[in-house]
């Protein structure tokens, strides 16, 4: 749930006077997303999402994100479209925060995805990667292997409060991943955070992708295993091979994997598990008193990591060698 | 901010199949309200608010609230209209909670009301009271004088943690109010919680009133002083007589006060201050660990109470004797 910054009607009206989107009729804070403050706007011209970017999104990265959304939308990916103000810009300031207005997308995110949803996601992810292939801007992934040790150092001493020996498990995994992390696999724009709440469906059809604020330039199949972790485990943290196969096969049908990519999936999946384990650990240990956001449990990703450590090849995920 | 109960798209779709409001296109939790879980629905027929009533709203009171909203809307008060399902009922069950769908109202609530807003509110409140005059149902106000001692007993021993001697201030006030609380003033339907976030404006015009879940049968001018407390004090808790005069004069123009009502305003204002002081005190001392709702500061109402204790007559609020 997130509205970190409230906005008064008067200051919002002043801000909107810089846009050609009609008169403000209502706005309501949305209890979704954990990084930014989001409001649903109703104006005489339609519905929009107003986002105030909070401190966790670096202002220098915003031009990458908005250009990416424009690029993808122009290539048929249904994602929020930044709305330009009268000066032709998509970024303004409101309540001292960088602020953008994007188009509203219909669709619902799926709390309990089925194998059919996973298949639809796989295809949508491949289409996203293909549409991003000719995107000219570049943004390094600060939350890939090069960034993990720093996160680890910040929570190492308190990790055992979350789970016994967790700091040792993470240290060993980190050593291995830093040594063996694959280089040279196909790269491009990845979403990097395509959890179920960022994928809208109408029926079994993907109707939109949102929240591109972790998007970056990285190994494409790393995005695939982030989704595998986020979509294909059951509430008891067991891996559901039917969902995994659906996601991977559907992705590979739209964007065939090379033998190298296929071979590296288990190691990348361990990295993807470690990445969310680490950021959740930092958030978990760092909840300020009186926080209005409940952090997600890092142990979920410790269990996913342990599963991937037992995997012998991507065949165990349900995908045959290409 | 409030979404206490999340709802899956599938269960919502099943629930909505019982209504004639078209196909579900999106729903988003709203970060407003502190009592219930609210979602903004978009269907092929329009926009609606879905409310799941949480434990603080007694299920037996819901028929009163929905009948009242229907009654008021039929008399030209712009408030949410309960939507009937195919069986002709306005209350259903979703996620094991009593649930209703009401129409969506445009308009913004005003974070920093001006005297013009206070005047508009005064008239809207009087119109609400007049429209409620022939409402047949009755609901006692459990948060009026008869209910305060129980609240006080629940927080008496810890009140000094909030402010030194607060328990003594409250005890003396409670004794006086129980003894002198006025009987026989005009009664009717009151909103009882008409804070700025429950009043929508388009420009300087009141466009709607929402959140009738404290509405009850009580002294009409008690509703007026609840508003006086909520609208006419500055952020530093000083009373703004310009705003107070605007609210009171505008109310009295639409529904003239009797000399008795006028004379009792200061005492009622003390009661209204004590009511919110007590409920805030209970909430403040009762925040469970990990709560996602930040309670409001009870000291704000302790200061308002002290102001009203210095008032000699309603003339001090800016309203001359009728």
Secondary structure topology:
The structure is a homodimer of 322-residue chains.
Chain A: H1 9-16, E1 24-29, E2 37-43, E3 46-52, H2 62-74, E4 92-94, E5 97-103, E6 108-109, H3 115-131, H4 145-155, H5 166-180, E7 187-190, E8 199-202, E9 205-209, E10 216-219, H6 220-231, H7 241-254, H8 259-285, H9 299-310
Antiparallel strand pairs in A: 1-2, 2-3, 3-5, 4-5, 6-8, 7-10, 8-9
Helix pairs in contact in A: 3-6, 3-7, 4-5, 4-8, 5-8, 6-7, 6-8, 8-9
**For the record, what is the CATH homologous superfamily label of the largest domain in chain A?**
Aminoglycoside phosphotransferase (APH), C-terminal lobe
Mean pLDDT of chain A: 93
The first-level CATH class name of the largest domain in chain A = Alpha Beta
CATH topological fold name of the largest domain in chain A: Aminoglycoside 3'-phosphotransferase, Chain: A, domain 2
Q: Oligomeric status of the shown chains? A: homodimer
């Amino acid at each position: 749930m997130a509205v970190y910054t409230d906005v008064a009607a008067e200051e919002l009206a002043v801000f909107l006077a810089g846009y050609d989107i009609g008169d403000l009729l209502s706005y309501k804070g949305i209890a979704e997303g954990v990084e930014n403050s989001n409001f649903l706007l109703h104006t005489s011209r339609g519905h929009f999402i107003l986002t105030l970017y909070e401190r966790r999104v670096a202002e220098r990265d915003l031009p990458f994100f908005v250009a990416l959304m424009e690029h993808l939308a122009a290539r048929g990916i249904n994602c929020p479209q930044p709305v330009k103000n009268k000066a032709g810009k998509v970024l303004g300031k409101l309540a001292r925060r960088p602020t953008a207005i994007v188009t509203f997308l219909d669709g619902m995110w799926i709390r309990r995805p089925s194998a059919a949803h996973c298949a639809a996601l796989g295809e949508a992810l491949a289409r996203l990667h293909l549409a991003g292939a000719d995107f000219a801007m570049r943004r390094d992934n600060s939350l890939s292997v090069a960034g993990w040790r720093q996160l680890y150092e910040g929570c190492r001493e308190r990790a055992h409060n979350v789970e016994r020996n967790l700091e040792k498990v993470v240290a060993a995994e980190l050593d291995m991943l830093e040594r063996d992390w694959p280089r040279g696999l196909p790269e491009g724009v990845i979403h990097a955070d395509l959890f179920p709440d960022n994928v809208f469906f109408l029926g079994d059809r993907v109707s939109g992708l949102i929240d591109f604020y972790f998007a970056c330039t990285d190994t494409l199949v790393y995005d695939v295993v982030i989704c595998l972790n986020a979509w294909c485990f059951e509430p008891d943290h067991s891996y559901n091979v039917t969902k995994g196969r659906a996601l991977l096969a559907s992705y590979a049908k739209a964007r065939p994997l090379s033998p190298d990519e296929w071979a590296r999936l288990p190691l990348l999946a361990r990295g993807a598990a470690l990445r969310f384990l680490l950021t959740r650990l930092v958030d978990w240990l760092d909840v300020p008193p009186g926080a209005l956001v409940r952090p997600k449990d890092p142990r979920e990703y410790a269990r996913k990591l342990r599963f991937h450590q037992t995997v012998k090849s991507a065949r165990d995920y349900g995908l045959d060698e290409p």
